[in-house]
Specification:
Layout lengths: L9 H7 L39 H13 L3 H13 L4 H11 L1 H8 L7 H17 L2 H11 L4 H14 L4 H10 L3 H13 L5 H7 L5 H13 L6 H9 L5 H16 L10 H17 L7 E2 L4 E8 L4 E8 H19 L4 H16 L15 H5 L3 H14 L3 H14 L14 H5 L5 H12 L10 H12 L6 E5 L3 H13 L3 E5 L2 H10 L3 E7 L7 H10 L8 E5 L4 H9 L4 E5 L4 H14 L7 H20 L12 H6 L7 H8 L5 H12 L5 H18 L5 H10 L6 H14 L3 H9 L6
Parallel strand pairs: 4-5, 4-6, 6-7, 7-8
Antiparallel strand pairs: 1-2, 2-3
Length: about 750
């Protein structure tokens, strides 16, 4: 340990006081009146120290003594000396153990000693927090708190407060193991003295399997008057399967927090608590409210709970969406414990559990089924219950959760999914317009599987969703609406740097029409000076149409417009305001954190490939099966044509093309059938389907392509393919010249 001891003599101390000796002057006759001279300065008081400190510990003791005596000038000099000696961590902690944290706090309150004293206190706080995770250190403090030495107990309490929330797990373990009620009361009192900082940890302690810990946690939260603990205490206070003592402690805590007195427990109501828990669960699940411990700068939430693995109190740092879902499920389940027969609470709880279950496995993974799974229980609610659960998830923007009930509804294959019993809009039909691709696709499959022979309003949307899956590149798009071309181009560049494909339009109306007719937009950027429609009209139309109602919208403008547009944006959720940014970093710094709260997770390559195969199959089936009258797939002809030679999609794509009565579809079939380098089996399918297309819709193909098909015969050595091409040509009648050549080749010349 490096430390320099500097002797401070009385003379040196005298010099440091800055004493100035001033001589006296006298007025002469006729002079101007003399200015009063300052009074003679008093000589400095001698140092009260009997001897100069020889060690850093002596120096620190001297500083405390000088502060007590009011000699702040000398105390500052000795503090300078102490800091110049570069005291190490061990010394700081040993001084804390001897004099207590209160000594450092006292020094920090002396203005003359700042900032050295405040920096020293901050350093001690950092060191103490580091020790807080050391069970041996915290157990030592608890031992002293439970001991008989009053001074040691007070110092230990002071150190425990300084250790902060990290010390709580060890203290709670000691609480559970306390031998006597008196020891438990002392530990509870010690926790209370630690202050409101430990509220999250005490909330987590309410999950402990120990009645002692749960009851003590409720008492501490009550004494702390922890408003944030209200919903957690409500669960404990009114749960019928909770121990009587714990339930009473929670009720007394609630009465203290809400009514101002522990004696007013009779004024509490389980019905009111259940409503409060449902409202909190719905608010968190929908994103209308955020956890109280949310750190906006880090987009993270710190949650405390009971770890079954370690058997102790622990904490996790979670993203905002994950933490909100977890708390929503906890509050919903709490409400269910208070009102188990309430149907809306049952369905809300299942919706939130679908949310937490989705966090437990990667996107695209099949939902666990059977006993003990949320899917297995939700299936028991029937079609109406599942539809309501789906509706809750969709309205909350919890799209991964929505895929759970949607898969079950798809397996039911009931025509009733197209309309709700109450006459309101079907949740499955509403899912067709979700901004989430997984949800849209599952909804389209659920309806397609019905193969309804009768036309219905959602048929065209089903075809559109299936068609968009065929050509999905995996790169999300962003729509930019701005009449200023240069500014829009700059924003488009910023979006490209974020990995989004920008689509630029100049008017609000054009932007709405594109957004309503296409899928795959991750976000819409609308400049505040939007034209044809203006901003208000554009926002209103986006939110009024089911296809665009849930698209995230960011309004771009000058900072001075933020307050003016706040109400409009609040009424157009999900929406936000971002300021004109001069650089891509500034732009992304505003937009990306907000988009992260949307909790969107792109499709994996495996999911995208699976969707393409299913889309190709169902487009072919809808065009040729029982539902062919209900589904017109011609609007997605271009998408089908594009994947007509892509394995393993090609066969279904060709079947779908053969059902579209257009020249373009017939041309594509002829083109593939005539291509010499194409796969033989693919050419065979195309030739056969061309024949069917001609028989059904007549000859529509370009004459040049037909001649290419005729010419390909001479290069086709596969017998089956050769026969199929001949059949195709026969269905339209071969050209006379070609036929003559074919006849002549049959035998020897005359």
């Amino acid at each position: 340990m490096a430390f320099v001891t500097r002797a401070l003599t009385a003379a040196a101390a005298f010099a440091m006081t800055g004493v100035l000796v001033v001589g006296l002057t006298y007025a002469q006759p006729g002079d101007a009146p003399a200015i009063d001279s300052p009074p003679e300065a008093k000589p400095p008081e001698p140092s009260p120290l009997l001897s100069e400190p020889a060690t850093p510990r002596d120096t620190f003791r001297a500083i405390l003594l000088l502060v007590d005596l009011g000699r702040f000038d000398l105390a500052r000099a000795y503090l300078d000396n102490f800091i110049a000696g570069s005291p190490d961590d061990a010394l700081i902690l040993s001084l804390r153990d001897e004099f207590g944290t209160v000594a450092f706090l006292k020094l920090s309150q002396v203005v003359e000693l700042r900032p050295l004293s405040t920096n020293l206190l901050a350093r001690l706080a950092r060191l103490s927090r580091g020790q807080a995770s050391d069970p041996a250190f915290i157990n030592g403090l608890v031992d002293r708190i439970l001991g008989t030495d009053e001074r040691a107990r007070l110092v230990a309490l002071d150190d425990l407060r300084n250790a902060g929330i990290d010390a709580v797990p060890t203290v709670v373990t000691r609480l559970d193991a306390a031998n006597t009620p008196a020891d438990r009361d002392r530990i509870i009192s010690a926790l209370v003295t630690m202050g409101a900082e430990i509220t999250p940890a005490m909330i987590g302690s309410l999950e402990s399997p120990s009645e002692t810990v749960r009851g003590a946690a409720a008492q501490v939260l009550g004494w702390l008057e922890a408003i944030d603990a209200i919903p957690f205490l409500e669960i404990v206070a009114f749960s019928n399967d909770e121990a009587d003592g714990v339930r009473l402690a929670a009720r007394e805590a609630l009465a203290k927090i809400q009514e101002g007195s522990r004696l007013k427990v009779d004024e509490l109501s389980s019905e009111t608590a259940a409503i409060d828990l449902r409202d909190r669960a719905a608010g968190l699940f929908s994103g209308r409210s955020t956890p109280v411990s949310y750190d906006d700068s880090a987009n993270a939430v710190e949650l405390w709970g009971w770890s079954q693995e370690s058997g102790s109190l622990s904490r996790e740092t979670l993203t905002l969406p994950v933490a909100a879902r977890r708390l929503a499920a906890r509050f919903a389940r709490g409400a269910l414990r208070l009102s188990p027969e309430h149907r809306p609470t049952q369905l809300l709880t299942l919706a939130t559990l679908f949310g937490t279950a989705a966090d437990a496995f990667p996107p695209g993974t099949p939902w666990p089924q059977g006993d003990g799974t949320v899917s297995g229980v939700a299936a028991l609610t029937g079609l109406e219950g599942l539809s309501e659960i789906l509706k809750i998830c969709l309205e909350a923007g919890q799209y991964r959760a929505a895929t759970g009930p949607l898969r079950i509804l798809s397996d039911l294959a009931s025509p009733a999914i197209l309309k709700q019993p109450s006459g309101t809009k079907s949740a499955v039909v509403a899912a067709l317009n979700s901004p989430d691709q997984r949800v849209r696709f599952l909804a389209a499959l659920a309806i397609a599987r019905l193969e309804s022979p009768d036309p219905h309003p959602s048929a065209s949307r089903v075809v559109e969703v299936l068609g968009s899956a065929l050509t999905d590149t995996g790169m999300a798009a962003a729509l930019v609406i701005d009449a200023d071309v240069d500014r829009a181009s700059q924003v488009g560049g910023f979006l490209s740097a974020m990995g989004l494909n920008p689509v630029l339009v100049r008017t609000g109306r054009e932007g709405f029409e594109i957004a309503a007719s296409r899928t795959g937009f991750e976000v819409v950027i609308i400049h505040a000076n939007c034209v044809r429609w203006d901003l208000s009209q554009t926002l209103a139309n986006f939110r009024a149409d089911a296809r665009t109602a849930a698209l995230p919208i960011a309004v771009l403008g000058e900072e001075s417009l933020r307050g003016k547009l706040a109400r409009r944006i609040a009424n157009s959720q999900p929406a936000t305001f971002i300021t004109d940014a001069p650089t891509a970093i500034d732009f992304e710094g505003q937009l990306r954190p907000w988009l992260a709260r949307m909790d969107r997770q792109p499709l994996t390559d495996a999911e995208r490939a699976e969707q393409k195969q299913l889309a190709a199959y169902w487009l072919a089936r809808l065009a040729t099966g029982p539902g062919y009258r209900a589904y017109d797939i011609s609007p997605v002809e271009a998408e089908i044509s594009r994947i007509a030679e892509e394995e393993p999609l090609s066969v279904n794509a060709l079947i779908a093309l053969a059902a579209i009565p257009s020249a373009a579809a017939q041309n594509r079939l002829v083109e593939i059938a005539a291509r010499p380098l194409a796969d033989v089996s693919l050419r065979l399918s195309a030739a056969s389907l061309f024949t069917q297309h001609v028989q059904r819709f007549g000859l529509l193909a370009d004459a040049g392509l037909v001649r290419q098909l005729e010419d390909s015969l001479s290069k086709t050595t596969d017998p089956e393919l050769n026969a199929a091409i001949r059949t195709a040509l026969g269905s339209i009648g071969a050209a006379p010249g070609s036929l003559a050549r074919q006849i002549e080749a049959l035998g020897p010349r005359p």
